[in-house]
TrEMBL record:
CDD domains per record: iPGM
Name the UniProt record assigns to this protein: phosphoglycerate mutase (2,3-diphosphoglycerate-independent)
UniProt domain BPG-independent PGAM N-terminal: residue ranges: 98-318
Compartments where located: Cytoplasm
One of the record's GO molecular function terms: phosphoglycerate mutase activity
Claim: Cytoplasm is one of the keywords in the record: yes
PANTHER family in UniProt: 2,3-BISPHOSPHOGLYCERATE-INDEPENDENT PHOSPHOGLYCERATE MUTASE (PTHR31637), 2,3-BISPHOSPHOGLYCERATE-INDEPENDENT PHOSPHOGLYCERATE MUTASE 1 (PTHR31637:SF7)
Keyword Methyltransferase tagged: no
Amino acid sequence: DFSWKLADHPKLPKGKTVAVVVLDGWGEADPDQYNCIHVAQTPTMDSLKKGAPERWRLVRAHGKAVGLPTEDDMGNSEVGHNALGAGRIFAQGAKLVDLALASGKIFEGEGFKYIKECFDKGTLHLIGLLSDGGVHSRLDQLQLLLKGCSENGAKRIRVHILTDGRDVLDGSSVGFVETLENDLAKLREKGIDAQIASGGGRMYVTMDRYENDWGVVKRGWDAQVLGEAPHKFRSAVEAVKKLREDPKANDQYLPPFVIVDESGKAVGQIVDGDAVVTFNFRADRMVMIAKALEYADFDKFDRVRVPKIRYAGMLQYDGELKLPNRYLVSPPEIDRTSGEYLVHNGIRTFACSETVKFGHVTFFWNGNRSGYFNPSMEEYVEIPSDSGITFNVQPKMKALEIAEKARDAILSRKFHQVRVNLPNGDMVGHTGDIEATVVGCKAADEAVKIILDAIEQVGGIYVVTADHGNAEDMVKRNKTGQPLLDKAGKIQILTSHTLQPVPIAIGGPGLASGVRFRKDVPDGGLANVAATVMNLHGFEAPTDYEPTLVEVVDN
Ligand code: 3PG
Ligand code: CO
């Protein structure tokens, strides 16, 4: 007797326009010169913080609060937007893969049985991000996968690596490649023909998202499948070290390379009869390569040669598209998201961001589900991102355009919920360029202002929050919080996310005067936001949602 019908909130009215603004990569941290949000002029966000103390607070955005394995796991956009949209905490990919590897169940499942058929005659190819960042993949999981595959009969293994420098320090790729090389050498001692076959930087090779630039995926295809790349090396350690000698090089953007044998032939092309596993658990940057590997009809680039392979993802990356069809670990079943409930309860919704974050406020928000719940009730607008650039070059990104679209949607009075993601703190923060990140944070703050002004005009309500930290801390620190220096005495730039909490502020002329943050959910996290937003739309949240952050006092 399940019903989509939400109960009326006993005190809060319906019909208000609610703006939900997610500042990507916008955490709260002590002010210093590496806190770009502090350094930047952010009068709008400052005024929310300094305004009504009962309408601004911090929420947890990392670790267990968002379904990650440990409290040492920084937050990220996937788990952050999942929690924001779903209102509950689901064990996420990282955790599910850990469990499946620990119990050994991963090697008993349908997906593994499917690829195992190739182990006798074919090569097993493993493609994915090589680091211990824990956002898209983890080295220790790859190690356990290699072990399990070899124990289960894989005789010839080729690893196609993508170097990180975005979820981990730039330059750390060399160490990860050395570790992997050691592991593969040990497998070779046991008679297994195991090698790294190709590589490239994650932002330049394979791991594009939301169809921003298919050229990225093509570069990966050429190296991994066709064995073709502009750079050829005899070993991956040599490749990464050599390519990093270019003063402009960094791990995120290393050019593609293939490993060749003494005759100059690529050691690991993907051919008929091979098995392929993409070992990232996170979806967004695997969907495009999964399409290239799986779809018979495919016109995004010329694949030249389409090998007949057995392909499995670490997880299924898109539940709606059933992509890929085969996978080693079942993804979290993020059902009954707030978006789906609200649409069933008559809430007309507008969602917008630019390409690089578009899926965050649609796909991730809706539980890793692409498309609309009900196209007559929803409108999703994607503003094309600049492609082929690093965002320190254009730190304002499309923040203004996103805000203007949101403003127009609010002023049209056609929508009850207007939801956006403002990418600057995160996307510019990941470049490690402090000055540019400051510019980006200011632009994001100006965008918030435009949206709040529109809410003011229509008598609406705003909820301003973030998905995880990034721009508020741009330096690697020791345990006491002091910047860590490298051997040369230089600070180490932190390109990754952080463990910091994020702000949430509510307000607007439509917010009933007695609404304030409760004091009895001090550990509240991103998953508490969905119930909060449902309340502001005039509904009670489902009982199994994490509790709302707000209460209504009589005054
Ligand atoms: C990325 O994919 O860009 C980073 O690994 C994580 O960033 P996001 O979680 O903010 O998207
Ligand atoms: Co990020």
